[in-house]
Amino acid sequence: MTRFQFDCIFYHVRDAEKAISFYSDVLGFRLTSRDVVARFDIDGVLFELVPTQGGRDLGGNGNARLCLKVEDISQAVEYLKAKGVHAEEIQEVGNGKLTCIQDPDGNEISLWQYD
Fold it and tell me: CB–CB of 33/40 below 8 Å?
């Protein structure tokens, strides 16, 4: 059985340095790590800042995503397909594998398998 676990909430940002400064210096969030993304611990919740790629338009309605961690992303995708949920093609990313699905209202949910 596929097990879905809460991973994080993240925002895409255009200027990572400016965003890190805002969340650290203005809001007082503690930066816990940084590699491809910047991670903050907000009262036990993992919050990440992810740099945009290719000039992505962030839109006016926000861009937060619910991220769920899975042990085997291929198995998770097969499970979701059996439930009638479409998953995007699995992508290799800097620290693992990623795919996205949508809830019935079109809200994006990211599934991550970390290396």
Answer: no
Question: What is d(CA 19, CA 17) in angstroms, rounded to the nearest whole number?
Answer: 5
Closest CA to 110 of 102, 53, 33, 18: 102
Q: Is 90 exposed, middle or buried (0-12, 13-18, 19+ CB in 10 A)?
A: middle
Say if CB 115 and CB 42 are below 8 A apart.
no
For the whole prediction, is pTM greater than 0.90? no
Q: In angstroms, what CA-CA distances link 69 with 14, 104, 109, 110, 115?
A: 25, 20, 11, 8, 11
Domains of the chain: which residue ranges? 5-114
Give the up-direction half-sphere exposure of residue 55: CA atoms within 13 A in the CB hemisphere: 0
Q: CA angle 45-51-52, nearest 5°?
A: 120
Residue that has been written with the tokens 């699995």 in this structure:
90
- Decide if domain 5-114 falls under CATH 3.10.180.10: yes
Coil vs helix vs strand at 93: strand
Encode pLDDT of 76-91 as tens digits. Answer: 999 999 999 999 999 9
